[in-house]
Automatic annotation (TrEMBL):
This is Bifunctional protein GlmU. Residues 306-564 are annotated as: N-acetyltransferase. Homotrimer. Residues 11-23 have a biased composition (Low complexity). UDP-N-acetyl-alpha-D-glucosamine binds at residues 30-33, 44, 97, 102-103, 193, 209, 224, 282, 387, 405, 420, 431. Residues 27-184 form the MobA-like NTP transferase domain.
């Protein structure tokens, strides 16, 4: 980017430092368009890329200028766009464009609303001193309204950033311009308004829309980006004289350029050498193209700041994500929303995280998660699912095929595999056995499970909440824990196992299993395959039926039908 010197000639390094540039009186974001080429029920400016809507990108860039006032002009799908604007900035002034089409009319509606706000503020202040009176010269007793620089930008230019706007504003003040326009050059400028410059000075004499351009003007490659800085008084006067005598029957904001020139004001342009920076979105193809370009720029910035991105082609990082130096992102990683990753952490491959905080040195592998916290040195995955409210402590572990929700897992505690932990608190240095479930829902309400520190729970445990397992307690494998387990106790809940001898051969005759069992019995005797417990049960059965149990050489009871 280069700044425009006086008399329209461009030169580098003339932009004042940001702190020397006065804040603008207002920024106006134009978000009233219908966006028919998007073919969507969603308003065009609410389509997202890089984790923000296009309106969000525009308002974020505008906010970096710290304007005295921010106005957003709406019309089509007014309620949705207005709600989104106020959600982004509760102090924004939402302005309704009337039925008169065109960017000029949109800005005129915004300026009228801004002037009314300024008048109301001044009236409230002056009412305290009772000094308001009619001016003998017929001027408004509260002044004209907004005074100073007014920045205008379209709401569908998502790559435009605050730094570029600040540079445009600085050039406007440095040159004392009436109007300053952000422009760029395209190899094919079809469809864009052309910048017509004065020979010799390079000042802008007009912006001609493509449909109204002559054949010679259509050869011009410098185009209007729909980003401007106006002196408020110049803008107010120019808008008052606008008409719609053009090919589209619209009120063009670009016609203010001619009126500013007619008054003798300076109209100059700041030429950007980065066309993508001011590229607008009109359809889904452009949305995808600019989304990919935004992601490329985001990754490039992080890599220059010390982040390793192994495969930029498959890695996506939203605009609001924060990464520390020495973070490593492996292929297939997507980081969305307000996700933050601390130094030395490794994320991926094939991981999607939204609004997740990852501590230093943590590893997250093949995981899907949202609204969760992963502690320093902790490990997650592969194939884990972190639902909102998950908090994993320092050096904790959430392992393979584990799902968590609204769960606090203390430092050093592990949930290694095949488990669900929901609405639960687990203390420090505890181990949860495989295939465990906190049974948190009774069909009406959710209940909490509490497992203390240094606890050891067995595999295939069901913790039927509300239930508490104390510090240092154990639970046996296969247990259904329905009552509290005191600290240091062993919780056991099992039915006694019984083996029904010969069941397969009698109930599944002719199957491979039955044939295998028969072969084994034939080779080793009737009770060769019986386990000690089954032998004891068989002996008890025979005793009840009058048979005499005997003891074999190994001391196991066996059945004998002979007399003593």
């Amino acid at each position: 980017m280069v700044a425009t010197a006086p008399h329209g000639e461009t030169t580098a390094d003339q932009t004042p430092a940001p702190q020397q540039t006065p804040r603008p009186a207002a920024v106006v974001v134009l978000a009233a368009g219908q966006g028919t080429r998007m073919k969507s029920a969603t308003p065009k400016v609410l389509h997202a890329l890089g984790g923000r809507t296009m309106l969000g990108h525009a308002m974020t860039a505008a906010g970096e200028l710290a304007p005295e006032h921010l106005a957003v002009v709406v019309r089509h799908e007014r309620e949705q766009v207005a709600a989104a604007a106020l959600d982004l900035d509760a102090g924004a002034l939402v302005v309704d464009q009337d039925e008169i089409p065109g960017t000029g009319r949109a800005v005129q509606c915004a300026l009228d609303a801004l002037d009314a706000r300024v008048h109301a503020t001044r009236a409230a202040t002056l009412a305290q001193s009772d000094t308001v009176h009619d001016d003998e010269d017929g001027e408004h007793p509260l002044g004209d309204g907004v005074d100073g620089a007014v920045v205008v930008l379209a709401g569908d230019i998502p790559l435009l950033d605050g730094a570029t706007l600040a540079e445009l504003l600085a050039a406007h003040h440095a040159d004392g311009n009436a109007v300053t326009i952000l422009t760029t050059e395209l190899d094919d400028a079809t469809g864009y308004g052309r910048i017509v410059r004065e020979s010799g000075t390079g000042d802008v004499t007009a912006i001609v829309e493509h449909k109204d351009a002559t054949a010679a003007q259509r050869e011009i490659r410098e185009i209007n980006s729909s980003v401007y800085v106006f002196d408020a008084a110049v803008l107010r006067r120019g808008l008052g004289g606008l008409g719609s005598d053009n090919a589209q029957g619209e009120v063009y904001l670009t016609d203010v350029v001619a009126s500013a020139r007619a008054e003798g004001g300076a109209v100059r342009a700041l030429l950007s050498d980065d066309p993508m920076l001011v590229e607008g979105v009109n359809d889904r193809l452009a949305l995808a193209t600019l989304g990919a370009e935004l992601n490329r720029r985001t990754l490039e910035r992080w890599m220059r700041d010390g982040v390793t991105v192994v495969d930029p082609a498959t890695t996506w990082v939203d605009a609001d994500v924060e990464l520390a130096p020495d973070v490593t992102l492996l292929p297939g990683t997507q980081l969305h929303g307000a996700t933050t990753v601390a130094a030395g952490a490794t994320v991926g491959p094939d991981t999607t995280l939204t609004d997740v905080e990852i501590g230093a040195g943590a590893t997250v592998v093949r995981t899907h998660g949202s609204l969760s916290v992963i502690g320093e040195g902790a490990s997650v995955g592969p194939f884990a699912y972190l639902r909102p409210g998950t908090v994993l402590g320092t050096k904790g572990k959430i392992g393979t095929f584990v799902e968590t929700k609204n769960a606090e897992i203390g430092a050093g505690s592990k949930v290694p595999h095949l488990s669900y932990v929901g609405d639960a608190v687990i203390g420090e240095q505890s181990n949860i056995g495989a295939a465990s479930v906190t049974v948190n829902y009774d069909g009406v309400a959710k209940h909490r499970t509490v497992i203390g520190s240094h606890a050891r729970t067995g595999a295939d445990n069901m913790f039927v909440a509300p239930v508490t397992v104390g510090d240092g307690a154990y639970t046996a494998a296969g247990s259904i824990i329905t009552r509290d387990v005191p600290a240091g106790s062993l919780g056991v809940s099992r039915a006694q196992q019984k083996n029904i001898d010969g069941w397969v051969e009698s109930r599944r005759p002719g199957t491979p299993a039955a044939e295998a069992a028969a072969r084994t019995r034939d080779a080793a005797g009737d009770d060769a395959t019986l386990a000690p417990q089954a032998k004891r049960e068989l002996a008890e059965h025979n005793a009840l039926n009058g048979a005499n149990p005997s003891t074999d050489d190994d001391g196991d009871a066996s059945a004998s039908t002979g007399s003593a």
